[in-house]
Amino acid sequence: MINKKQDSKIKGFMSLIRPFTLLAPFIVSSSIIIASYVYMQVSLSFSQVLIFQILPASLSFVFLNGASNALNQATDYDADLISKPYRPIPKGIITKKEAITIAIIMYIGSFLIGAIIHPTFLMLLLFITFFTVTYSISPRMKDKLWFNQLWIGIPRGFLGILGSWSVFGSIMEPVPLTIACIAGLFLFGGSITKDISDKHADKIVGTKTLVIKYGEKKAAFIVLPFLFFPFILIPVFINIGFLPVYFWLLTFLAIPAFFIFKTMVEDQSKQFSLENTRAWSFMYITYFIFALSFSALTVAGTILQI
Questions:
Q1: What span, in angstroms and rounded, lies between the C-alpha atoms of 250 and 36?
Q2: How far apart are CA 67 and CA 143, in angstroms?
Q3: Cα 217 from Cα 220, distance rounded (Å)
Q4: Which of 24, 44, 91, 174 is most deeply packed, by most CB within 10 A?
């Protein structure tokens, strides 16, 4: 029988790893892995690879993201006391030591699963880990202007896509490299959506962001090219042979990308229940659509030999 204290602890641990944000690595990684499976025309049955490769590889990304969330909350204690006092560490439900322990366990879990997939996949997980760890602890790139965005765009976008594709395909081919660049640039720009709700705390603790330096509206204009042009330039990538012709439909994602920008320049005082701004939520949804659309187009295009 779970008592009230234990129940509070379990809920605290769940809040620590932020389950909603774990949907992104699962949906994105599984979509890209399935795309690489079809694109590379792997001879093994789908049911076989689903159980032994697709789900484990996706789970390793989920563990990696959960570890990053836990470590980030452990090191963001001072800022969270100001802007997010409802989180489990400021509330005293979870200690910083417990959060770091959870992070280490989840990192190790991710590596163990990754080692089962193959060496290249594990190597990319380790590269991603380097960025997630140095984002939160020394040299703590989260506090450094521009680098804090780069340290999100590279691991969660560029390396995340390549890691997922590597389960079945080569990461040195034009398709995964181009899609990874699009994802990295999009997240580089979109990552400032989370800084809007944190701006007061970030200013007090010394974290430098575009939102603090330039204000919300000017920061939105600065990152607009990173949100908008990766999708607008897809026809160019197709024309030079980097992408198959059927990916032109991804160009339409420039529309929700522009909507993210529009939302950033509007009043962000009303927050969603997911503890962040509307722009942040729309950014995540757009990224989901990007991954799912890429996978669907790859499957359809390969089968139909477009």
A1: 17
A2: 19
A3: 5
A4: 24
